[in-house]
Design brief:
Blueprint lengths: L3 H4 L11 H18 L2 H27 L7 H26 L4 H5 L3 H5 L5 H32 L5 H32 L3 H15 L11 H6 L6 H10 L5 H25 L1 E2 L5 E2 L1
Antiparallel strand pairs: 1-2
Helix pairs in contact: 2-7, 3-4, 3-7, 4-7, 4-8, 4-9, 7-8, 7-12, 8-9, 8-12
Length: 281
């Protein structure tokens, strides 16, 4: 069990006068170091290794067993990205990190020490979100790169492969950032944020494919509008739901992110944190 001393942020001196940018950088750097060497990151690393293992198993099966019924390596990569990365990692990773961005500091009784520094709560929350995004992407992106290198390269020309990789990394980064902000808001506003987050993840995975208007109430729908859905599911998706233009989807994602972050900042400012680390509404 980590102690309060082990979790204390290492603030470089001097801090006065810090300025907004220096305060942001200081909190972000210390938070990134704290997150990267946490047990959560170890768990996230194990989760991120699963699709790489699946890709390796496929390559082994294709090379040694020569099973004709196996899909092409490129098609299998699309399936991995569509269902493992966007439906599993893009929900579990932000859930593990986001719900604990502030509550972990409260439990460790280090938040009051952090808030006594000459930085605003807005800067603290934004810096922690930035640190989370960097750490999460640093852990998950190598997994995607490995799967892409094993399955996609060699199946198409390098120019298309590079453009597809950039597109997939963009969707991955956007999803991690937006879902992280949503789960961070849950962690600030709700008592049982982990449970609510799990229910929200189920909502995203299920209702993104429900006909009518429900799919437009999910973040996943707008992420998929900018993603390469596996070709064998494109016709099915066109039947069960309306598509959204990529530009409109990006604008919607930006609005959702800004609104959720603003709501999180508002909740963070309304809460008072006592010296012993507990919080009051």
């Amino acid at each position: 069990m980590e102690t309060a001393t082990e979790r204390r942020l290492s603030w470089p001196a001097p801090l006065a006068p810090p300025g907004t940018l220096q305060g942001f950088w200081t909190v972000a750097r210390a938070s990134a170091r704290q997150l990267f060497f946490s047990r959560r990151t170890l768990l996230v690393g194990l989760l991120a290794a699963l699709p790489v293992l699946l890709a390796a198993v496929l390559l082994f099966a294709r090379q040694w067993l020569s099973l004709p019924q196996l899909r092409s390596a490129s098609g299998f990569y699309q399936l991995l990205f569509t269902f493992v990365y966007t439906h599993v990692l893009l929900l579990l990773v932000p859930l593990l990190y986001g719900t604990g961005l502030i509550s972990d500091e409260v439990e460790a009784k280090t938040l009051t020490c952090l808030l006594t520094r000459p930085v605003s709560k807005t800067v603290v929350l934004l810096a922690k979100l930035a640190a989370y995004a960097v750490v999460a992407l640093a852990v998950v992106a190598p997994s995607l790169l490995a799967c892409f290198a094993m399955l996609q390269l060699g199946e198409t020309d390098p120019a298309h492969a590079l453009s597809w990789l950039i597109q997939d990394l963009g969707v991955l980064a956007a999803g991690l950032l937006i879902y992280g902000a949503i789960f961070a808001f849950f962690g600030l506003a709700l008592k049982r944020s982990l449970l609510i987050g799990l229910l929200f993840g189920i909502w995203e995975s299920v209702f993104a494919y429900v006909p009518g208007f429900f799919h437009k109430l999910t973040v996943l729908h707008y992420l998929q509008a900018n993603s390469r859905i596996a070709s064998e599911y494109a016709a099915f998706l066109a039947i069960v739901r309306e598509s959204t233009p990529a530009d409109q989807a990006r604008l919607t994602l930006l609005i959702v992110f800004v609104v959720v972050v603003a709501a999180g900042i508002a909740v963070f400012h309304r809460r008072e944190y006592r010296q012993q680390g507990t919080e009051t509404a």
